[in-house]
Design goal:
This protein is α/β, with parallel strands linked by helices and 329 residues long. It is 37% helix and 16% strand. A seven-stranded parallel beta sheet has the order 3-2-1-4-5-6-11, with helices on both faces. Strands 7-10 form a two-stranded parallel ribbon. Helix 1 links the parallel strand 1 (2-6) and strand 2 (26-31). It is globular, with a radius of gyration of 19 Å. Belongs to the NAD(P)-dependent epimerase/dehydratase family.
Length: 329
């Protein structure tokens, strides 16, 4: 297939790009490197069927639409992430995550793309009442990042309905693995903990650490993207999770090291846990990588986080002031 991956130099995008290439597909990557890294694709330089284009989907349809010509599958992963900067810069997040998605959809519509897979976020559920959380749960975004990712999903499904585009949206839960984000503002737990481990600093545990997350290994997520692309399902939403939920304390025990506690933050759920019965039933997908195996695999690549910011309780307190200011009661 001729495929296109927006955000293909990012964490999940680079793993997806690698898998597509190794499966024999031709891949065009669009990335502006706001969160992605050129180094994430360095090991793929010898693939002649890879084209990498530095461009920004938020700037309009004209700069990007030519790259969608004769493309079969589009995987739309390009987005701004993190909670704190979305609170400080909501306009930038709307441009990237909502306007950018619309530009991608219009390019797909113009060139009659055969399949469009959107990388949605489980953050749309907010603090869920139903655990495990199904796709039919109420939508309660707690901050602009979650809202803009959900609005992007709404646009994808609307374009699918009105313009008959073959779209599927995957709501991902707490994806982790090699090449996860290292820089930017405080937020991603694995990037934070791994940099602290390398620096010999204590892990900063939010609250008592009993909160749990549906940590889902990146290669399982890539499998889900491919299952969605190969299926005939259209205008569907699927949760993508590990089929379990794991405490932060369990993660710290697996990583090994001292710990220090920091205040619990408003707008964060105590539990994230996907009901993945729908994707199992309709796509035949299920996760393959256990939490222990995934954490062990990420520790083999820990040097990737050697240049990442090393967060301390004091620097976290400063970085999250706007979080408490706007989301606190």
């Amino acid at each position: 297939m001729y495929t296109l991956v927006t955000g293909g130099a990012g964490f999940i995008g680079s793993h997806l790009t690698e898998r597509l290439l190794r499966d024999g597909h031709t891949v065009t990557v669009l990335d502006n490197y706001s969160t992605g890294r050129k180094e994430n694709l360095a090991q793929l330089a010898n693939f002649k069927n890879l084209k990498v284009v530095e461009t920004d989907i938020s700037r309009g349809i004209v700069p990007i639409e030519k790259y969608f010509r004769e493309v079969d599958w589009v995987f739309h992963l390009a987005a701004l992430a993190d909670i704190v900067p979305s609170i400080v810069n909501p306009v930038g997040y709307f441009r990237a995550n909502v306007d950018g998605t619309m530009h991608v959809l219009e390019a797909c519509r113009k060139h009659k793309v055969k399949r469009i897979i959107y990388a949605a976020s489980s953050s749309c559920y907010g603090i869920a009442d139903i655990i495990p959380t199904p796709e039919t749960a109420p939508i309660r975004p707690q901050y602009p990042y979650a809202l803009t990712k959900y609005l992007g999903e709404c646009a994808v499904l609307h374009w699918g309905k009105v313009y008959k585009l073959p779209v599927v949206s995957l709501r991902m839960f707490n994806v982790y693995g090699p090449r996860s984000r290292t820089g930017g503002t405080y937020g991603a737990v694995f990037g934070t903990f791994l940099a602290q481990k390398l620096a010999g600093k204590p892990f900063t545990i939010v609250g008592d650490g009993t909160q749990t997350r549906d940590f889902t290994y990146v290669t399982d997520v890539v499998d889900a993207f491919l299952a969605a692309a190969k299926s005939d399902n259209q205008n569907e939403i699927f949760n993508v999770g590990s089929d379990h939920t794991y405490s932060v304390n369990r993660l710290v025990k697996l990583l090994g090291g001292p710990r220090v506690r920091i205040p619990k933050r408003p707008g964060e759920p105590d539990v994230t846990y996907a009901d993945i019965s729908k994707i199992k039933r309709m796509l035949g997908w299920k996760p393959q990588v256990s939490f222990e195996t995934g954490v062990g695999e990420i520790l083999k690549h820990i040097d990737y986080w050697r240049k990442a910011p090393v967060w301390t309780p004091d620097s976290i307190e400063k970085a999250t002031r706007d979080w408490f200011r706007y989301l606190g009661k």
